[in-house]
Each structure stands twice: as C-alpha cells, then as structure tokens.
Amino acid sequence: MRVILAHNNLFIAGGAEVFYQEAGRVLSAHGNDVAYFSSKDGKNPQNEWERYFPRVAEYKKGSLVKRVFDFRNMVYSRTARDCMKRLIDDFRPDIVHAFAVHGKLTPSVLDACREAGVPAVMSCNDYKHICPNYKMYHHGRICAECAGGRFYRAALNRCCKGSLVYSVASAIESYAQSSIDIYRKNISIFLFASEFMANKTGEFWGADVRWKLLRNPFNSPSFACHPGYDDYLLYFGRLIDEKGVDVLLKAMAHAPRARLKIVGNGPQEAELRELAKGLNLNNVEFVGPKWGDGLNALLFRARFVVVPSTWHENFPYVILQSFAAGKAVLGSDRGGIPELIEHGRSGFIYTALDHRSLAEYINILWDDKKKAVQMGIDAKEWADENFNDARFYADIMRIYREALDARTDIRR
C-alpha cells in the first residue's frame, strides 16, 4: 500500500511526533511505500520528501500587518494545500493518514486529499479539533465551555497560553474551521488512542462521528523487564500545571517512609520546589531533566511510577515506558489513563486531586515490596501482549482497508 503520513513536524518535539515516526517505521518494515509530509524547519532530519514541504506562517514574529496575514495562513494555508496536491500527484497514494495538522500545515491539506479522491484518516492526539487550547483545561481546572460552538469562551477565559490575543486568535481559528466543517467533510475515519477522547468528541460533534480506536505504536517486547529496584518511586515528565505534580507532593507529605525522585523541568518547577520546601518534604528529590540512557537508568531501578495528571490526558507514553520496564503505575482517573492501568493488577487508579487517596496507594506499594514487583511483572506481560509491532500493524491496516472501502462515503 502507498501511504502519505502528514504531520506538522518531522523532527521529534513530543509524543505526537513519536507516533508519526513510529507509524511510518512499522508501515515501511512491512513493505508499504511511505511518503512523509511536514513543514519546512531547520530542525528536520534529512528526508527525501523535503522538496514537497511548505514553508509555514510564523504568527509570533514581524510587523502587525505581517502577523495578521500570517494568522490567516495558520487557519487555512493554500500553500500547504498546493504542496500536498503536488505530492499526491507525484506519489499516487492509496490513502493519507493525517496527524496534527492545525496551526502549521492547517486542515487545508485535507481538502487536497478530498479533491484528489484520496481517502484520509486522522489520528487525534489532542483536543484541538474541539477545543481552541488543545487541552480542555486551563487555570487549574477541566473545562468544556466551548461545547456547542461557543468558542468565544476561549477568549473570555484567556485559556490559550494565558494570552488574550492568542486566545482570540485561537477562537477565530476554531470558528473559521468549524464554519466549513473542514475536518468531518474530509475525514473518512477519525482515530483515537483512547475511548475517552472519542466519547468526548461525540459530546461536541454528535454521535454520528465515524471513529476507530487505534492506540499509539509502541513495541514493548523490545524492552527488558527490570523487576529490581532501589529505594525510590519515580515521576518523569514536564513540570507544568496540568501534570498534577503538586498533588503528588502533597501526597508525599502523607507517605513519609517513601522517597520520590522527580525527573523533568518546566515553568512550574520553582513553584513546586517552594511547595516541597513549605511542606518540609525531606523525602523528595528534584533530579532535573533526563533523556535516553540517563532516564532509563532511573526508571529501571524505580520501585514504581506515578502519573498524577489533573487534565484529561489522552495517551501518556510514560505509562507504556514504565510497563515495558516492568514497573507498576499509580495513575489519576483522568482521560485515557484508566484505560491503560488495570486497577489492582498493573497499578492503581485514584481520584485526581485527592492527594490523600494517592498517598494511601503509595504507602501500599512502598510497604509491600512483593506486590509492587508482581504488579510490575503483570504490567510488562500486558504491555507485551497489547503493544507490539504486529498488533499495531494489523490494527492500522484493517482501518486503512475500511477507509478505502468507504471512500465514497466522504461528504462533498
């Protein structure tokens, strides 16, 4: 099969790019012809498809006139649409698989697919298709105020990067794309990594959304199990409001026997350090950012891992990384997290924001070392069975074939 994978960034900037690159790797490994379509950027690795990549608008730089013009191109880029048309004409794909295209490539590239008669599927890794600020979360709380097309709420709440200007621009973007229904008229099947996000999309768009569950690619069997441990539990990730590290610190005040290492950095780091100091936490260590072997060294020797997110996290790779290493995970009940953790077997689920409940589970696994080890082994077994290249390839090809069969159902 000939497949175009479209995503804003070719370089790795986060989990969405990992999904994009890993999907291409698995498809290519099974003999499919894969072309990549992204935006031009100096951080991109060398790629044979670079000549098709468009230069995208930069809203944050230049004069007011330039920024207004660039904003228009961030809503709907004719340049990106035309570049996608050229790639489709030259590559002749059977299907296009879009990932995050808003803001840079823009959903205009989906129009190019429909006009060429090529079916498109789309993996939604965040909530941008229904929420101007991507997260359905702002100023420390869950939010669904834009439901029913009330995107002006984004401006009133200043929920996009805390900026009125950026929030107004994001609201206008959502109104413009909603008015032409650019996603639903061009996409054969929406793909979600969690049933939570699929159901939330249905609440905003209606029950007629055609979707399938496609969990992100992750080859768990390629990682060794590490049941051994040292005397610490682990958090690793960004230090930002929605990750709930403040809840974890409050829990640690009620788990004095346990020791926590925090790996990562971010805008909330200073605030979190102050909170730890105010709580007199002598059992918490801020390690700083670690990647690759440095992170693995800490993960492999952790007793267990905590994912305390307070927003509706869709599909945290942190959980799969931990499971693949043979570590149990304590996770909040937000978003898709409960779909990955089997309560009582591979970890525990607690009520988000309830630091006392989290502390209870920390104490259980800290005091019962055998339980923590066994949960980690069970987690590894589950991850190996459910997250491997063969499973992902079978799932994605089934979806592609269904989209090809249903190409005449795309609304025009």
Question: What can you see in these coordinates?
Answer:
- This protein is an alpha/beta fold and 412 residues long.
- The two termini are 25 Å apart.
- It contains 15 helices and 14 strands.
- The relative contact order is 0.11.
- The strands form four sheets. Strands 2-1-3-4-7-8 form a six-stranded parallel beta sheet, sandwiched between helices. Strands 9-10-11 form a three-stranded parallel beta sheet, sandwiched between helices.
- The chain has two domains: 2-129 and 183-218 and 389-409, 3-Layer(aba) Sandwich (Rossmann fold); 221-386, Rossmann fold (3-Layer(aba) Sandwich).
- The radius of gyration is 22 Å and the shape is globular.
Quick one: overall form? Answer: globular
Major β-sheet profile: 6 strands, parallel
Output the radius of gyration. Answer: 22 Å
* CATH superfamily label of the largest domain: Glycogen Phosphorylase B
Corresponding CATH architecture of the largest domain: 3-Layer(aba) Sandwich
Give the class-level CATH name of the largest domain.
Alpha Beta
Kindly estimate the percentage of residues that lie in beta strands according to DSSP.
5-15%
Spatial sequence of strands, sheet with the most strands: 2-1-3-4-7-8
How many separate helices?
15
Helix-strand category:
alpha/beta
Q: Please, what is the average pLDDT?
A: 92
Count of structural domains: 2
Helix content: 40-55%
- Sequence of secondary-structure elements: EHEHHEHEEEHHEHEEHEHEHEHEHEHHH
Number of strands: 14
Poorly predicted runs are 62-66
| N-end to C-end Cα span | 25 Å
- CATH-defined fold name of the largest domain: Rossmann fold
